[in-house]
Amino acid sequence: QVQLVESGGGLVEAGGSLRLSCAASGRTFSSRPMGWFRQAPGKERKFVAAINWSGGNIYYADSVKGRFTISRDNAKNTGYLQMISLKPEDTAVYYCAAMRPGTCRTGCYYYPRQNEYDSWGQGTQVTVSS
Q1: Predicted pLDDT at 31
Q2: For 3-22, what is each residue's pLDDT tens digit?
Q3: Measured between alpha carbons, how far is 114 from 71 in angstroms, rounded to an integer?
């Protein structure tokens, strides 16, 4: 496993922007696909976006396409989620997660499956006011 720490959450007005960061420890981050998930109050945790090890394959949930951008900087052991045009329904705790090293080398259909990820951060709160 790898340790993940999210940051960058906060309170923003509808239409605003935030950038979340996910800092990873250890030397295997660069070989791990990573994803972002979110959990709204009283709801199940859901998939948001995922990226393979190189950044060459990216997948988004339909609800965030065109508004969120996932990226990573392997030299810094950090992943990012840029969010623009935020809506009140984006309010949730956002979690980053990483798969096992070497998986999904060119991308895979199971990015949204939470049980494919073996490392999780503690989450960061994003609140969008109307």
Answers
A1: 94
A2: 999 999 999 999 999 999 99
A3: 19
For 115, residues 6+ apart whose C-beta sits below 8 A from its C-beta are none
Q: What is the DSSP string of 9-25?
A: -EEEETT--EEEEEEE-
Mean pLDDT within 121-125: 98
**Is 89 exposed, middle or buried, given 0-12, 13-18 or 19+ CB atoms closer than 10 A?**
exposed
Read off the tokens for 119.
């490392």
Please give the Cα distance from 48 to 36 (Å, whole number). Answer: 5
User: What are the φ/ψ torsions at residue 125 (nearest 5 degrees)?
Assistant: -80, 130
> What letters, b where the CB count within 10 A reaches 16 and e where it falls short, cover 91-121?
bbbbbbbbbbbebbeebbeebeeeebbebbb
Model pLDDT for residues 39-74, shown as the tens digit of each residue: 999 999 999 999 999 999 999 999 999 999 999 999
Reading the block at residue 42, the tokens are 């009283």
